[in-house]
Fold this sequence. Notes:
Elements: H1 21-43, H2 46-50, E1 53-62, E2 71-73, H3 75-92, E3 95-109, E4 113-126, E5 131-146, E6 149-158
Parallel strand pairs: 1-6
Antiparallel strand pairs: 1-2, 3-4, 4-5, 5-6
Amino acid sequence: MTDTAPARTRLVPGSTGHLDPAFLADRAAIQDVVAAYSLYYDSGDFEALGDLFTEQATFTFTPQPEGFPPAVTTRKHIVAAMAALYRHNTGVRGAHQRHLTANTLVTRLDATTAEARSLLSVSFAFDDGRNEPGRSGSYVDLLEKEGERWRIASRHLWLRELPQIPGS
């Protein structure tokens, strides 16, 4: 977005007045970050996964998953926690998680901050060929633009109820 572009706040699905090239590029980049998280986690690429977060990012959960902290703060700790969960699932359970993140909607966007909401479904692919459903929920991501790059500054995973979208 250029410095002369108007500040963007809550976006209304279906409206077209804000669909300038800069907005479309930012929205595509934000959707790429949301999709990349699942692909990097599921493939075990934690260096790339960590690069999706700001240094001081937070990852919180409602409710707290059993055996997992209710919140993790900083990129370093988020990567360590997610890598430990990955190792537990692959090593102890013999299962590989498959995250399907869908219906990503950018609900707020300005020059340096954004909010995106997505639905999540997780399944487990076992070493013996079985598949089983896992968790479902909703991500609420707050993102910050650092230079030309969007990163997750805060990710909240809602594992039961879906959070209300402000203004809807």
